[in-house]
């Protein structure tokens, strides 16, 4: 019988040497994430020094010009920084609208643009609720005719049939000149319909509304019908108009509404149905998965100006960054250069609206040792977003800081119950409620400080 001790020793030695050699392999990525490095001696090595991403390539942040009445941010709050110059009202335009809402003869409106972070009405649902509970208002607002995530959104029951749907995320056959404010357009087939039913489980402010609108464009005559609360159909006939967008409306105590296209020409394209109130606050969610925000410049100025005329906004929120932040990029001047065009485009279309840029929140990735840390580049991107706000004279809110800074996404994932998903990038509805409360408190504090400065200056 052979002595196997020598063979076993040699085999073990080879395995150990092989595992030790794996440490020197270059980093390996799977689906964009680094695989954990094999290191038999990890317990013997000193803790790695994590290098901070250098800010040497960052745009130096400008000094904020302080007003005569200087206020300080109270402890524990991340305040809104308003970079409006002396020729602009800045966030004051929104606060003035809230204060004088009774005389507006329309609701105060917020257009909240973002990426998948707010998809399905996450965060915006609770921010809408907080505004409507304090300042009045009902309804979920603007709903594109169709949606790929209709079943995921709890704030409204959304059904539709008979539509040819087009979105800016389509790889082919999307005509940018035909899109609406949400980067969509929809071509009706015979008998096309869209129905909205107020959500009763999320908040009492959404179960009914006062007015429903249907937005469309057609150079040919259009025949529509609307059914409210399952009652009789009411028909509308609109002559063709090749110069601009048109809107049909129905009023009443509306719990559910169904819009139907009975007759339309080949040039007809439809945009959205709404559930709105006549007063108070309306917040429209405009989320685009995978977006960096740059697609907003592709919306024709004439279309945006039509919305300013038919659906005036008092505050425009831009929340992007998830699809911009990178592990290997520290200089984001290319991005802010394009986003400056977006801000100028929106300012030209909505000259009376306040604009608020919300910085990217915390986003985690795994190091080669398998540990979670804030993605390199996130904090640099925030500096560029803040500089973007300063350069374009709009407001900025640092969501990363408000969340708790570095590692805060891990804390949200590990909280009981969890407030974020295991991709360590996206929040869930509980996380949305948490952040909406923080943002709302920051807005109300900023409104209070604006009113103090105004009284001081007067």
Automatic annotation (TrEMBL):
Q: Which Gene3D superfamilies match?
A: 2.60.120.1360, SGNH hydrolase
Q: What residues form the membrane-spanning segments?
A: 7-25
Matching SUPFAM superfamilies, A to Z? SGNH hydrolase
> Which keywords appear in this protein's UniProt record, sorted alphabetically?
Membrane, Transmembrane, Transmembrane helix
Q: Name one GO molecular function term.
A: hydrolase activity, acting on ester bonds
- InterPro entries hit by this protein: SGNH_hydro_sf (IPR036514)
Q: Which domain of life is it from?
A: Bacteria
Signal peptide residue numbers: none
Q: Which residues form a coiled coil?
A: none
Quote the protein name from its UniProt record: SGNH hydrolase-type esterase domain-containing protein
According to its UniProt entry, this protein's organism is Phocaeicola coprocola
């Amino acid at each position: 019988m052979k002595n196997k001790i020598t063979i076993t020793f040699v085999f073990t030695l080879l395995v150990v040497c092989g595992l030790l050699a794996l440490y020197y392999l270059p980093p390996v990525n799977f689906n964009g994430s680094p695989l954990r490095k094999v290191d038999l001696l990890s317990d013997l090595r000193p803790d790695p020094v994590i290098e901070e991403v250098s800010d040497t390539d960052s745009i130096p942040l400008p000094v904020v010009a302080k007003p005569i009445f200087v206020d300080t941010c109270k402890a524990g709050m991340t305040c809104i920084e308003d970079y409006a110059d002396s020729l602009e009202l800045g966030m004051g335009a929104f606060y003035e609208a809230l204060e004088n809402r009774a005389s507006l003869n329309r609701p105060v409106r917020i257009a909240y643009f973002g990426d998948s972070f707010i998809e399905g009405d996450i965060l915006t649902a609770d921010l809408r609720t907080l505004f409507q509970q304090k300042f009045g208002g009902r309804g979920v607002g603007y709903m594109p005719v169709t949606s790929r995530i209709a079943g995921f959104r709890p704030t409204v029951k959304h059904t539709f049939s008979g539509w040819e749907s087009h979105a800016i995320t389509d790889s082919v056959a999307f005509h940018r000149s035909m899109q609406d404010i949400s980067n969509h357009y929809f071509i009706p087939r015979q008998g096309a319909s869209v129905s909205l039913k107020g959500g009763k489980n999320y908040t009492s402010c959404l179960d009914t509304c006062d007015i429903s609108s249907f937005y469309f464009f057609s150079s040919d005559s259009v025949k529509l019908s609307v059914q409210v609360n399952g009652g009789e159909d009411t028909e509308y006939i609109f002559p063709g108009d090749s110069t601009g967008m048109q809107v049909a409306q129905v009023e009443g105590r509306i719990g559910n509404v169904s819009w139907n296209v009975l007759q339309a020409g080949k040039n007809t394209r439809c945009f959205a149905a709404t559930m709105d109130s006549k007063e108070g606050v309306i917040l429209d969610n405009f989320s685009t998965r995978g977006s960096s925000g740059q697609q907003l410049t592709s919306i024709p100025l004439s279309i945006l100006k039509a919305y300013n005329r038919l659906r005036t906004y008092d505050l425009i929120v831009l929340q992007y960054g998830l699809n911009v932040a990178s592990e290997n990029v520290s200089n984001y001047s290319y991005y802010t250069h394009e986003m400056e065009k977006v801000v100028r485009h929106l300012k030209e279309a909505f000259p009376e609206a306040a604009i608020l840029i919300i910085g990217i929140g915390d986003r985690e990735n795994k190091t080669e040792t398998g540990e979670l840390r804030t993605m390199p580049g996130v904090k640099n991107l925030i500096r560029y977003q803040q500089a973007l706000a300063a350069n374009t004279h709009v407001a900025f809110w640092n969501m990363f800081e408000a969340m708790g800074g570095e590692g805060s996404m891990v804390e949200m994932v590990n909280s009981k119950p969890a407030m974020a998903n295991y991709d360590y990038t996206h929040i869930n509805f509980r996380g949305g409620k948490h952040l909406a409360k923080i943002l709302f408190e920051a807005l109300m504090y900023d409104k209070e400080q604006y009113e103090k400065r105004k009284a001081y200056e007067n």
